[in-house]
Specification:
This protein is of the alpha+beta class. Among the domains are: about 5-20 and about 45-195, no CATH class; about 200-310, no CATH class. About 30% of the residues lie in helices and about 25% in strands. The strands form 4 sheets. It has an 8-stranded antiparallel beta sheet, with helices on one face. A 5-stranded parallel beta sheet has the order 10-15-16-3-17, with helices on both faces. Strands 11, 12, 13 and 14 form a 4-stranded antiparallel beta sheet that branches. A hairpin with a 5-residue loop joins strand 12 and strand 13 (about 275-280). The radius of gyration is 24 Å and the shape is globular.
Length: about 425
């Protein structure tokens, strides 16, 4: 993978009061319902929305600052912060990562300028490595943006300033900077974040046929599998044109669906031709339409389509990946996640001990929540997870988590 997100730090966003989460090629958030796993994904959704619409509209669509900010504790917070470390730009590395930092502050005193509502301010900073040891830093505060080219060895800093609208986000504005001012690097960071996708199969939508001209658009524009798999038939038909990739996908499906012999496509005419998926099953005289297939079968095909995507976005998140799947499918899904993480970074949410059993210590992040409503993510370090596994005699991670040894005890009334 050309680059990846290394770390996410969040303050006062929903249940994420103060968390710093290390991220690898495959990160699986493990925890009970309501501990804040999905809020981690919502951070990236907010950032992507900021790029598309800008900061203020992105907050307003979520009910405003007070709805987004942390609700626990004795008094409401006045700041929200999101900080990322990544290796996305050309000269970045784990030791010299790209860094993006966004702070939003709420002032409760009303201002005539804001029509009597509370007032927001924001500050942002971008930092990334340039050639021959140069570092580039861009900061945004109020209505000014500063571009600085630092040379620590020479001991001086060149900088320039320009105006920017008070609440305009650098993620949506600064990609228009000239290449010499860091526009290319900011644009790359923005592109990576805007490509973020939360994938969750909508089974009813995925069962439906797709108009055939959609396939032409897929091929021409290189469109993606939709985030709810509503274009599953068209996307699988496109994948089937790569014979090797398609055969591996079919073999995977057959390995966990013993009755399945093959996956085919049915074209129907009319004013607009449609394509739908049909399953050839052993012992049946005719194919089974996907519309009549089981819930778990449709979800499995949606996940395999995702995992065999030859051109995925930079970051893919999957909600409750094990939902509706038979346990025998979980080992295959974990293996394919690891393989696909060479092309896209994965953040996966689960509360399944059976799935967690199949993970490595460096792949899991244990999630809990304290008595004040704040998420504890991670609730235990990777080093401690490894030590507990060794002390337990290499018991599976899911068994250790479910029993409460790794935290997040789900026994008793919490089941």
């Amino acid at each position: 993978m050309p680059g990846q997100l290394l770390e996410l730090h969040v303050e006062n966003f929903r249940s994420l009061r103060d968390v710093t989460i290390p991220l690898g090629p495959l990160t699986v958030l493990v925890g009970a319902n309501g501990v804040g796993k999905s809020n981690v994904l919502k951070v990236f959704d907010l950032l992507a929305d900021i790029i598309r619409t800008d900061l203020e509209p992105a907050l307003e669509t979520r009910g405003g600052f007070d709805e987004v900010a942390f609700w626990g504790g004795p008094k409401p917070p006045t700041t929200l912060r999101i900080r990322l470390k990544a290796t996305w730009t050309t000269h970045s590395s784990p030791n010299a990562p790209d860094e993006y930092d966004l702070k939003v502050r709420r002032y409760s005193a009303p201002s005539n300028r804001d029509n009597g509502r509370y007032r927001l301010t924001r500050s942002e900073s971008f930092q990334f490595k340039r050639t021959r040891g140069k570092g580039r830093r861009i900061t945004v505060s109020g209505e000014r943006a500063t571009v600085a080219d630092t040379r620590s060895s020479a001991g001086f800093e060149d900088s320039s300033e320009f105006g920017i609208q008070r609440l305009s986000s650098g993620l949506s504005t600064l990609p228009r900077l000239a290449k010499t001012e860091g526009g290319a690097e900011v644009s790359l960071v923005a592109d990576q974040l805007s490509s973020f996708r939360v994938f969750d199969v909508n089974v009813d939508a995925a069962r439906q046929p797709t108009r055939i001209e959609h396939l032409a658009r897929l091929a021409q524009r290189n469109d993606k599998l939709s985030s709810n798999a509503e274009n599953l038939a068209a996307f699988l038909l496109l994948l089937s044109q790569d014979e090797d990739r398609w055969q591996r996908l079919v073999d995977d499906a057959c390995s966990v669906l013993p009755q399945l012999a093959d996956i085919t496509f049915v074209h129907t005419g009319g004013s607009a031709e449609h394509v739908s998926i049909a399953l050839r099953e052993r012992g049946l005289r005719r194919p089974t339409a996907l519309a009549d297939a089981s819930y778990g079968t449709v979800r499995l095909l949606g996940l395999l389509a995702l995992l065999y995507d030859p051109d995925p976005p930079a970051l893919t998140c999957v909600e409750e990946i094990d939902h509706g799947l038979h346990p025998q499918a979980l080992q295959l899904i974990v293996e394919r996640l690891r393989e696909a993480s060479a092309l896209t970074q994965f953040i996966v949410v689960t509360h399944s001990p059976a799935l967690t059993d199949r993970l490595l210590p460096e792949e899991i992040v244990i999630c809990e929540r304290d008595d004040d409503g704040a998420s504890l993510i991670p609730a235990i370090t990777t080093g401690d997870v490894r030590a507990i596994v060794e002390e337990s005699g290499d018991l599976p991670l899911g068994e250790l988590w479910f029993s409460g040894v790794l935290g997040g005890d789900l026994t008793g009334d919490e089941l």
